[in-house]
Design a protein that fits this description.
single chain, alpha/beta, 7-stranded mixed beta sheet, 5-stranded mixed beta sheet, 13 helices, 14 strands
Length: 327
């Protein structure tokens, strides 16, 4: 079935609501409106306002209420309307949701999925185009994931909701309208990857490019250009940002000898730094060049007319590839 990324998330939420009466959706305007990006369109009409709940404009209240629901046996799925709106809920997420399992010596779980549309590329205003994933990946007790395709959007939201762990589910908003064929029934039969496994999208021999979320398509575009120029790039979609599947990256780098990491977030302190450090530790004698990072600049997200200069594009990825091949 051909569907958009947003449609795949919608269908994943629908099936979760059908399969488990403990699943409830919460967020601003997710009911009658269907959410800003219409990801929850028609779900309140079909499941009622006790299962798909329009909340006040209060992110701390949304997550705090979901935390209480989870402690009472429900499986809430929260929508944070835009990436830059999650900060009022940061205290609830990192101090309560992430720590309750450890604090209770494993006796209490918090099966909460927090959906966050994130990243740029759609011309939004301030606070609507951020990449805050490193804050959450740094927090022990949270799983952090980001799908890049409609198939993974469906599979991974289903997997996230089924877990007893709290999951921060980053949805690259500029990919909401990407379309692809998705075998929903096959994915439900277990034909997809586990939630914490990276995917090798394209095999190659000259260098490895790791990306996630919105930048996977950028890396694939760079690989296609490189192929036409005689350079073979292996592209890995990270999928899970915490935990990170270092085994898949290591196996690739041991063959190619080179690694470039791409993400939208600023380079300083980003996930690329952690990947670079770990792979340098694990593959030191296999690396032919230093691990390079391509990301956003160390500035607040720029106005819409400037975002194309801020976001990594195939040219910036290929410039890093050229640098690593020349080393």
């Amino acid at each position: 079935m051909k569907t958009t990324f947003a449609g795949a998330v919608n269908f994943g939420l629908r099936r979760a609501l059908e399969d488990d009466p403990r699943v409830v959706l919460m967020g601003e305007d997710i009911g009658r409106l269907g959410g800003v990006f219409r990801v929850t369109d028609t779900l309140q009409k079909d499941f009622g306002n006790n299962r798909v709940i329009d909340t006040p404009l209060a992110e701390s209240g949304i997550v705090g209420t979901a935390f209480g629901m989870a402690l009472r046996g429900l499986r809430p799925v929260c929508e944070i309307q835009f990436d830059g709106f999650v900060y009022p809920a940061f205290d609830q997420i990192v101090c309560q949701v992430a720590k309750i399992h450890y604090r209770t010596k494993g006796k209490v779980v918090a099966p909460i999925t927090i959906r966050i549309p994130y990243g740029g590329g759609i011309g939004s205003v301030e606070h609507h185009s951020e990449s805050p994933e490193a804050y959450f990946a740094h927090t022990a007790g949270l799983r952090v994931v980001s799908p890049s395709t409609p198939a993974d959007a469906y599979l991974m939201i289903r997997q996230a909701i089924s877990l007893d762990d709290p999951v921060i589910f980053f949805e690259p908003k500029r990919r909401y309208w990407d379309k692809a064929d998705v075998d929903f029934d096959g994915l439900d039969r277990g034909e997809g990857l586990p939630l914490d496994r990276a995917r090798v999208c394209v095999t190659g021999s000259d260098a490895t490019v790791v990306a996630y979320g919105g930048t996977v398509a950028t890396a694939l575009a760079a690989a296609k250009i490189a192929e036409a120029e005689g350079t073979s790039l292996e592209v890995i979609d990270l999928r899970s940002l915490s935990p990170i599947d270092f085994d898949t990256i290591e196996a690739s780098v041991r063959r190619t000898g080179r690694l470039v990491v791409v993400h939208e977030a600023p380079v300083s302190g980003g996930l690329g730094a952690e990947i670079a450090a770990r792979i340098t530790e694990r593959c030191f004698y296999h690396l032919e060049a230093p691990v390079l990072r391509v990301g956003g600049f160390d500035i607040p997200y720029p106005p819409a007319k400037l975002e194309r200069h801020h976001l990594p594009d195939p040219d910036r990825v290929l410039a890093a590839v050229d640098r690593t091949l020349a080393a």
